[in-house]
Design brief:
Elements lengths: L1 H24 L18 H11 L15 E5 L9 E5 L4 E5 L5 E6 L5 E7 L5 E6 L3 E5 L5 E5 L2 E8 L5 E9 L10 E9 L5 E6 H6 L7 H4 L11 E9 L2 E8 L4 E6 L4 E6 L7 E6 L2 E6 L14 E6 L5 E5 L11 E4 L5 E5 L4 E5 L5 E6 L3 E4 L2 E4 L2 E6 L11
Antiparallel strand pairs: 1-24, 2-3, 2-27, 3-4, 5-6, 6-7, 7-8, 9-10, 10-11, 11-12, 13-14, 14-15, 15-16, 17-18, 18-19, 19-20, 21-22, 22-23, 23-24, 25-26
Length: 398
């Protein structure tokens, strides 16, 4: 009788914990039927090792300081004026600067090595993806914590007008046909509500596997012999043929893919003459990206990065920006501005430029901060810069 009572007690506890867990993870919006997949957190002993694997190639800086720092170019008549938000390759903080390079505001929070990405809200709140350890945090204007999402968030996020947050989250997966069944890193598209509560997730592995038209994509475009099989590095919500999709850049196999939200399935995927790309975006129906390793080596075998825009109907490039010495092996980003200019982050060099449609640099900023990397003093890398609208409210500033 005592044994039966103990069993019933344990069952009751398990049911209570399960209900509590479900209520914590559920949000105000129901996930589409059959799509939610429980991925869980990485085991503590694997967390740091997997993050180390996934960040191989990312450095705090590469170029030695040249002496010319801050805003080096500013063509008032040609720029899209506003504030610029960016994070660094070392240090848990984000800066907001004006067109002259003056710091308007700074957010910071101890507890991680650096922030991969940040998003500022009109009231001064900030979202940040932290690295070592990986998570998503929300702070107020004074850098006081509002909430924290403990999933293995990485690389990118996208905030919708209704407050919904898309974020890339890593988990561990196994497949008998991938690395002989060893544990690998799977990337997940996760949707959170404005309070940081997860209500939808789908893995890239599952999204390819359930896609009838793209089920052979991972065979035709072989995954690397490395646990970080995808290395997804950007995500944004887009509309393709009337379908709401997550557009994802998959660095390891030079692929851009669209995963339909309602079905959790890949509905479109493409490769091209780009390599190790970042920041895939749809701009006016065209595909825009930061092509880190370029289509081919330059003179003497040197690599040159580029920002390139493709007509999706023809697959041909319609706009490209590059220049001698323009290169970022890791990270790198771009943003098409309302006036047609493009804001470009040359991450490894700690440099941000605004480029006109005809390729003229109309604004240039070089990070004045330095860091010691491999025994050398180098310019501190900038992970991603974003130009906020000229009418972005600042009434929350102290």
């Amino acid at each position: 009788m005592k044994r039966l009572a103990l069993v019933l007690l344990l069952v009751g506890v398990c049911v209570f914990v399960a209900l509590l867990w479900a209520s914590r993870r559920s949000g105000d919006v129901e996930a589409p039927p059959g799509i939610r997949e429980v991925t869980g957190l990485l085991a503590p002993e694997l967390e740091r090792e997997f993050e180390r694997i996934a960040t191989v190639g990312y450095v705090a800086g590469v170029d030695e300081p040249s002496g010319d720092v801050g805003v080096l170019t500013y063509d008032h008549a040609a720029t899209y004026d506003g504030l610029t938000l960016f994070t660094f390759g070392k240090g848990p903080e984000a800066l907001l600067i004006d067109m002259q390079g003056r710091v308007v505001h700074r957010w910071s929070a101890e507890g991680s090595e650096y922030w991969a990405r940040a998003h500022a809200f009109p009231n001064g709140d900030l979202l940040a993806i932290t690295c070592f350890p990986p998570r998503l945090i929300k702070l107020d204007r004074s850098s006081e914590p509002i909430w924290r999402y403990e999933g293995h968030a990485h690389h990118d996020l996208d905030v919708q007008p209704d407050g919904t947050i898309l974020v890339l989250v890593r988990s561990v997966a196994t497949r008998e046909h991938i690395l002989d069944g060893a544990e690998v890193l799977d990337d997940n598209i996760v949707l959170l509500d404005a309070e940081g509560r997860e209500f939808y997730t789908v893995s890239l592995l599952s999204a390819f596997e359930r896609a009838e038209s793209f089920s052979s994509w991972l065979t035709d475009h072989p995954l690397p012999d490395d646990p970080d099989i995808f290395h997804a590095n950007s995500v944004e919500l887009v509309t393709l043929n009337g379908q709401k999709c997550a557009l994802v850049s998959i660095r390891s196999i030079d692929t851009i893919a669209a995963i339909e939200i309602s079905s959790g399935s890949v509905v479109w995927a493409v490769t091209g003459d780009w390599h190790a790309q970042h920041e895939a975006q749809l701009v006016g129906g065209n595909l825009l990206m930061f092509d880190n390793l370029g289509p081919e080596p330059g003179p003497g075998g040197t690599r040159r990065s580029r920002v390139v825009e493709y007509d999706m109907r023809t697959g041909r490039s319609v706009w490209t920006y590059s220049e001698p010495g323009f290169f970022s092996h890791g990270a790198g980003a771009q943003q098409r501005l309302p006036n047609g200019n493009t804001l470009i982050t040359e991450s490894d060099a700690g440099r941000v430029i605004e480029v006109s449609p005809d390729g003229q640099v109309v604004w240039e900023y070089v990070n004045p901060r330095t860091v010691v990397e491999s025994g050398r003093e180098v310019t501190l890398a900038i992970m991603r810069a974003e130009r906020l609208p000229g009418d972005f409210p600042l009434d929350w500033l102290p």
